[in-house]
Amino acid sequence: MPRTSATAPWDRLRFSATTTRGAEEAEAAAASTDAPLPEPGPWAGALVRAAVEVLVGSRPAAQLARWCTAELYDSLARRAGLAVRILGRPAVVHQARVQRVLVCPVRPDVYEAAVVVHDGNRVRAAAVRLEAHRGRWRATALEIG
What we know:
This protein has helices at about 25-30, 40-55, 70-85, and strands at about 15-20, 95-105, 110-120, 125-135, 135-145. The protein has about 140 residues and is of the alpha+beta class.
């Protein structure tokens, strides 16, 4: 069936995924190291920027494997592959720019951040949940609107 003009175009950057994780696993991961964690704000901004670049097709998804839980990484890689199959790779790729990051502590080892990012075409909002894992931050949920 042909597409009608009333149908909205498919948005390659719209993404949402959450990891299910037990409280015992989170506590064990947080307790596994006493090293201080980096500031969550810049880290969240870098992660969202990289995720946008993966979804656009200018960065390989494998570069996010260690920054995300396995479930989140699989969802992101699957969505990026789907975007390339449906829309192809863009002819001109603009570099994503993080404009603002707001961080909110949930617990000492868990933060949530709201990130405003410009993808080269429009400004988007993103939300990311960071949890401490072996002395570094790891994303357990990501939503880009």
